[in-house]
Structures are given as C-alpha cells and as structure tokens.
Design goal:
Length: 249
C-alpha cells in the first residue's frame, strides 16, 4: 500500500464529504525540469505520470470528483514547441490510459473550449468521453483550453441565444440556470482547490464554481506531488470549518 489507511478507517481523520470534489492547479512542471537542466517538456511528462498515480489512488483517498487544470486559455502564449508538446502529451495520455480508466471505473470528461483544439484531439476527447460515460467510481475532469472567464462568457452567449430563440426567458436567469450553461454542468462545485508550486493565485480556474471552495497552496512542484501529498492536504481540509456565510453551529 502506498500510504497509510487511516484515511478510510476514520481514525485521526474527520469524515470527508461523500462526493468530495478536489480540483488541482498542477503547477511547477517547467521549474521542476529547469532545476535539473532538462527541457520543460520532461517536467510535463513526469507531471502526467503523477496524474496517473493520483487518479489510481482516488478511491482510497475518498475523492469522487477530481478536476485537473492541464492547459489554460492563456497557455497558448507559450512557445510552439511547448504547446505542441503538451497537445501530443494529452493525446498520448488518452490513448494510453483508456483501458485502465475503463477497468477502474473512471469517467473522463473535458472542460474548456475544445473547438480550438486540433481535430484529432477533439475526436479522441469525444471518443474517451463516450467510452467512459457509463463509469461512476471516479469522475475525472481535465480542464483543457479552459479559462473561467471564457467559460462564463460562452455560457452567457449561449443563454442570450436561447433567449432570442424563445427557449429561455430573461427573467428566469438565476444562479442555477447559469450553472447549467457552464462546462461543469454535470459536476458538483469543488470543495477544495489545491495549487502546487508556491504560487498563490487562481489563474482563471473555476472562477464561478469555487465561490465557497477551500484553498490550499503548497510549495511542492507538481512532478513531486504524490497520493501521500494529497492525503496530507485532505487531513488539513477535514479540520476546516466551512460556514458558507452562516455562523458556527
Ligand atoms: C504547469 O506547469 C503545467 C501547465 C501550465 C501546462 P508550468 O508549465 O506552468 O510550470 P512552471 O510554472 O513554469 O514551473
Ligand atoms: C495555471 O498555471 C494553468 C495550469 C496549471 C494549467 P500557469 O503556470 O499557466 O499560471 P500562471 O501563468 O503562473 O498564473
Ligand atoms: Mg506555471
């Protein structure tokens, strides 16, 4: 076993929500590689390995929903080499992990504007989403060409179009209706957002959904992040009192 099982037994570990949703800003791949004198892409490759290990550990950690920030709407600013390298890494990940995800009950979804992605990657995304649509053990969502502002903008545009088409009345627009126009319409709001690499900013991730999420910022670079690291974070999270604007019981 990779890490101690007290997470499950409840000893020394207050109960976590049943449908726990953890979202992660996986940052620091480039620095991890540069620190070793290696190309940034080596860090991204090592980061993808850590993703596989974390997904595998989710049932044991008590994580039902895991949402990972893989590529932001701002990441196109990087060199062509890095962008293309990342895109081929995403495609390879889908192809390589498909069998394992099906066996292990992982449902994979993508959030973000996929229309800007290469056609082959769009086909792969559609394929893996369909292949794993019947799974319910772990809900893995990968944020690809994702930006919170872009997502809210696209949702607003779609709502406006529905109003013009007479499918939606402007008066009916509320928090719940807007949520149904977001890419995350099938997901609960995240309980916890983790960012690695020591940066303490949100970088356009889940701006609407994380309104009441707990945040954890840790110095660990993403390629060094393991299920044990996550277990420590969950212990911290479990101690927190979430009030959602109310007062202590
Ligand atoms: C996060 O690592 C992965 C992506 C943004 C794709 P970075 O590539 O941002 O690594 P640093 O922050 O430069 O170290
Ligand atoms: C956020 O990391 C995006 C992902 C982890 C995919 P960045 O490295 O792009 O964020 P900034 O530029 O440091 O804010
Ligand atoms: Mg970064």
């Amino acid at each position: 076993m990779m890490f101690d099982k007290s997470a499950q037994s409840g000893r020394d570990f207050p109960a976590l929500p049943n449908d726990l949703h953890v979202a992660v800003i996986m940052d620091g791949n480039g620095r991890w590689a540069s620190n070793r004198g290696w190309p940034r892409l080596v860090g991204h490759r090592k980061g993808a390995e850590q993703v596989r290990k974390l997904v595998e550990a989710c049932p044991e950690l008590g994580i039902r929903y895991l949402t990972l920030y893989a590529f932001s709407t701002e990441n196109w600013k990087r060199s062509t080499e890095e962008v293309l390298g990342l895109m081929s890494l995403f495609a390879r990940y889908i192809r390589r992990e498909a069998g394992r995800m099906k066996r292990e009950g992982v449902r994979l979804r993508f959030i973000g504007d996929r229309t800007r992605l290469d056609d082959n990657l769009q086909v792969l995304i559609q394929w893996i989403e369909t292949e794993t649509a019947g799974n319910d053990r772990v809900h893995l969502s990968v944020a690809l060409n994702y930006g919170g502002r872009d997502e809210i903008t696209r949702a607003t545009r779609a709502m406006a179009q529905d109003v013009v088409a007479g499918k939606l009345s402007g008066d009916d627009i509320c928090d719940a209706v807007l949520s149904r126009y977001l890419d995350t319409r099938d997901l609960p709001d995240p309980d916890l957002v983790v960012r690695t690499s020591g940066e303490t900013r949100v970088s356009n991730f889940l701006l609407w959904q994380a309104a009441y999420a707990e945040y954890v910022f840790i110095p660990t670079l993403w390629p060094d992040f393991t299920p044990v690291t996550m277990q420590g974070i969950l212990k911290d999270f479990a101690q927190r009192e979430r009030r959602f604007g109310g007062v202590s019981a």
